Amino acid sequence: MTNGSPKTAPEQPAIVFDDVVKVWPNSSGGAKALDRVSLNVPAGGITGVIGRSGAGKSTLLRLVNGLERVTSGRVEVLGRDATAARGRDLRALRRDAGMIFQHFNLLANRTVRANIALPLEIAGTPRSRIGPRVDRLIDLVGLTPLADRYPAQLSGGQKQRVGIARALATEPKVLLSDEATSALDPETTQAVLALLRDINRELGLTILLITHEMAVVRDICQHVAVIEAGRIVEAGETYGIFANPQHAVTKSFLSGVTGTALPGFIARRIVPDGTGPAILRITFAGERATDPVLSRIGSELGVETSILSGTIEEIDGRPFGNLTVELPAGTLDRVQAFLHAQNLRTEVLGHVG
Known about the structure:
Blueprint: E1 15-23, E2 32-41, E3 46-50, H1 57-64, E4 72-77, E5 80-81, H2 87-96, E6 97-100, H3 112-122, H4 127-140, H5 156-167, E7 174-178, H6 186-203, E8 206-211, H7 214-220, E9 223-228, E10 231-237, H8 238-243, H9 248-254, H10 264-267, E11 270-271, E12 278-285, H11 293-301, E13 306-315, E14 318-327, H12 332-341, E15 345-352
Parallel strand pairs: 3-8, 3-9, 6-7, 7-8
Antiparallel strand pairs: 1-2, 1-4, 4-5, 9-10, 11-15, 12-14, 12-15, 13-14
Helix pairs in contact: 3-4, 3-5, 5-6
């Protein structure tokens, strides 16, 4: 027996991918859509899987509710083996794992109300319970005035809200989002993401979403996994991935949303090595994100810096930013040593030729 308070056991992940392989049987040479993927999706949070087209992210998502089957490995959903689910077990799995589709998949001859009611009708829910449940969902997604309209009378954002309400109809514990915002304009995307955040917070649902937009991950996810050619190349808390990306694919995705992309007229002048002015990227995270670092470099080191690009924003409730600066020739070592003493991460991008 040990002294002190007992440790709290970590919560069981909502979804577990364990050494999952998916091979397309009719492909030349048996192409792998997924290659030994292992990933835990924390319960109660929002996890994003990001990758380029064809990377395997949609296939990964569709394994969760049995729309695709693994070639080998195991998928667990809420502690149950999804790879073995058939018949009644598969229907139960799909009730517990609602899905939002990229292109809405609404029935054109059904109203908003009737589209949302469809999963309940299929599940054999008594009619007396369907009406009140549908009304609550319509109110939740903000469509009460449009309840009797047909899909052709709705905007893209309104159609996606119907899709979200329909996915929630069977009171799932997991919500799967298949590129739910990729067909929407930026303003509507923000509204849909805000709705998903509210649903996560109010209902305690685990949300697993796939996307090719790092801005979506930044705005909504606590955890992220990066997939490339069927493999998870990087995974972890969103803030940590943004602050310190390790893989080239992750850095590529981040360049457009974290101020790391250089203006073309500067990028064209950079050479890997040289003795000219250095191009340095500084990453600011947490409490250091608003420190007046550049003014201190000037006052304490006597070095003048030129700002080339940068941004500061909030990720998962914490400030985060990047600055890319040009340093006079011969000052790089002193500036880097100063910044590292402040616990700031730096990356030398090259020199101006």
